[in-house]
Amino acid sequence: MSLVRIALALSLVASLSFSPRAEAQPRGDTEALARAVGNFRAEAERRGLQDVAQSAAELERRAWRGGGRRGGPGRLQEAYRDLRRRTFANGARMDDAILDSWDVVAAEALDLFGPPTGPIVGPVPPPVSPISPAPQPAYRFDGAFESMAVAFEGDPAQLHAQCLQFVQSSRITHVDDVRLADGRNVHNSSSYWNADQLCSLAVLNARELWAMTPIAEGVVEDVPFRVAGDVRGLLTAYLPRLLAGNRWIDDVTVNGRAYHNSAGYWTPDQATQMILSQIGTTPTPVPPTPTPVPPPPSGRTWVSEGVIEGRAFRISAPIAQQIEPACQGFLQNQRVQLVRSITVNGRTYRQQGGAAWDVRGACQLVASQAVQQ
Fold first, then answer.
1. What is each CA distance from 87 to 106, 228, 316, 342, 351, in whole angstroms?
2. pLDDT per residue as tens digits for the range 297-329
3. Are strands 311-317 and 302-308 parallel, antiparallel or unpaired?
């Protein structure tokens, strides 16, 4: 299902409001609306959405009766508004099949009653050029900071910036456990990581999205790293930041070889330089493809769905970066400025003690939880 179609469906669900003149005659075919609602009711019943099905049955009955009698158009519109409210309240439980049937209901209602008189609200799809598609990101980090799942992608600087914005807007503190994409858990036994250290760890353990050489990997004390592509640049830029404040570095492994400082301890800069000195002389794993090869299109989409401050949403996009701006458009059109509760893809996040996410922070969280379908 395309992002544009989802946006249209949810916009209609969220916003169809009709003229208060109850005696105005319907302009379209009430029987066509009745047939569409009947199909939608059957889909709702199959999913156990009894309140939606009951409201659909009432609208179906009124539509078959038509709007010719006195007060009929007003009652028909009220029945549609009731179905819209119930459908939107159950938005988190909707799937593609029932959304498809709702599209037909919304289209028939638009034809019957005319365009809405109020502002259209709902997710606003970001502009997508059919001629110049967005460049493929180079790296992606999937994992968890404590129990909060995270995902960032882009070039190293973009990935680091996304991570910093997420950590700062989410007000994550006291993080000493990080789960990597391969399931390993990294524990900070001496203190808690700050935002820059967390995000440097993410950059140094992000996976490349297509084949890159050379590759360097290892462990500094108990902290792992694996970098590909501009190995020297990545280690020089981010490893000292990850190790900042660590005064007890005397064990380092790089590309399978272990080194121990028996005379004392390395500083973060010294440990980095020691690792860089070994990259040129130690054989590194080389993927079979010697040059970057973009991955073939998967035909799959990224999806985030759930409820923000009681408002159901479902956003899909061909690339993950489009989820965040679509989410921001949704919240702005809903006139939501502060968010204290988010349920996305089955997980619920809440701010405590009066704290709240702004629109940007909330949508970064929503985008970070997107899954491919």
1. 11, 47, 19, 19, 27
2. 455 788 888 888 888 888 888 888 788 888 888
3. antiparallel
What average pLDDT does range 281-294 have in this prediction? 42
- The pLDDT, as a whole number, for residue 336 is 85
Q: Distance of CA 174 to CAs 36, 142, 187, 200, 253, Å?
A: 53, 20, 12, 16, 27
3-state SS track over the chain: CCHHHHHHHHHHHHHCCCCCCCCCCCCCCHHHHHHHHHHHHHHHHHCCCHHHHHHHHHHHHHHHHCCCCCCHHHHHHHHHHHHHHHHHHCHHHCCHHHHHHHHHHHHHHHHHHCCCCCCCCCCCCCCCCCCCCCCCCCEEEEEEECCEEEEEEECHHHHHHHHHHHHHHHCCCCECEEECCCCCEEECCCCCECHHHHHHHHHHCCEECCCCCCEEEEEECCEEEEEECCHHHHHHHHHHHHCCCCCCECEEEECCEEEECCCCCECHHHHHHHHHHHHCCCCCCCCCCCCCCCCCCCCCCEEEEEEECCEEEEEEECCHHHHHHHHHHHHHHCCCCCECEEEECCEEEECCCCCCECHHHHHHHHHHCCEEC
Residue in this structure with the two tokens 């009066």, named with its chain if needed = 354
Q: Which amino acid is at 4?
A: V
Structure token pair of residue 251: 């064990």
- 10 Å Cβ neighbour count for 184? 11
